[in-house]
Amino acid sequence: SYSDNAGGVVGSLDNSILENAINFGSIKALNSVGGIVGKMESSILTSCYNFGDINEGRSYIGGIVGFSISNNFTWSKISQCYNNANLYPQSTIVNDNPYPSHYPQYVGGLIGGTGGTILEDSSNKGNLFGGAEVAGLVGRMTGGTITNCVNEGNVTALASGDQAKNKGVSGITNSSLWPNIDICDTVNKGNVVATG
User: Fold this and answer.
1) 86 or 159: whose pLDDT is higher?
2) 35 in Cβ contact with 64 (< 8 Å)
3) CA distances from 43 to 25, 37, 40 (A)
4) What is the H or E stretch that residue 180 is in?
5) 165 within 8 A of 130, measured Cβ to Cβ
6) What distance in Å separates the CA atoms of residue 12 and residue 26, rounded to the nearest whole number?
7) What is the bridge-based pairing of β-strands 93-94 and 97-98?
8) Widest pairwise Cα distance in the chain
9) Closest CA relative to residue 152, chosen from 184, 190, 113, 119
10) CA distance between the termini of the chain
11) Which residue from 48, 131, 135, 169 has the least number of CB within 10 angstroms?
């Protein structure tokens, strides 16, 4: 069976530094799934590359980090990190039943979701697919900054029913109008499609 906090290099990173890491392997997991780190808390990630596709997951799925949060008001920092893999997560089967019944949510080319991260000098070239809150750089962002980043991957959100009402799809991020988010010198070059 699959588990949470799965990364191509590290499952969980807490108050630590990770540099010069590369992943080539494909990944299948449940929640907090990342090409390099599954779940990251108040840590620093520098010069990392992901080439491994993410094929299954439920939520918080990112080309570099699945879920990044802050601890004691210390934000995590991701710089000079690059995702070149595709993120086409399908709903994972648990006990012979797909959960959730809708498509995976919080999918980002670099970060699936964050509540406090400095993201800079990084890029995504992978195509990605999901249901609610899908974006070329950060799927769901409730705090942090994005500076000098580029998305070149195509972004597709496909959802129906209740999930479609709050879908959220963009080339950069979905923020829900949170006040503590800054985006500077950041560009989307990929196609963005919402259907359902």
Assistant:
1) 86
2) yes
3) 23, 11, 6
4) none
5) no
6) 17
7) antiparallel
8) 46
9) 190
10) 30
11) 169
- 25-84 pLDDT per residue, tens: 999 998 999 999 999 999 999 999 999 999 888 899 999 999 999 887 789 999 999 999
Q: Say if residues 69 and 116 touch (Cβ distance below 8 Å).
A: yes
Q: Which amino acid appears at position 58 of this protein?
A: R
Of 69-73, 131-135, 176-180, 190-194, give the lowest mean pLDDT range: 176-180
According to DSSP, the residues that pair with 10 across neighbouring strands are: 37
- Helix or strand run (H / E) with residue 165: helix 162-165
Which tokens sit at 58?
Answer: 């439920």
Structure tokens at 3: 């588990």
Of 123, 112, 133, which Cα lies nearest the Cα of 40? 112
Here the tokens at position 100 are: 């959730």
CB count within 10 Å of CB 93 equals 12
Q: Which helix (H) or strand (E) covers residue 38, if one does?
A: strand 37-41
Distances (CA, A) of 21 to 6, 8, 10, 83: 15, 10, 10, 12
Task: Give CA–CA dist 135/169, Å, rounded.
Answer: 6
| CA distances for 95 relative to 60, 117, 138, angstroms | 21, 35, 30
Q: What is the 8-class DSSP label of residue 176? A: T
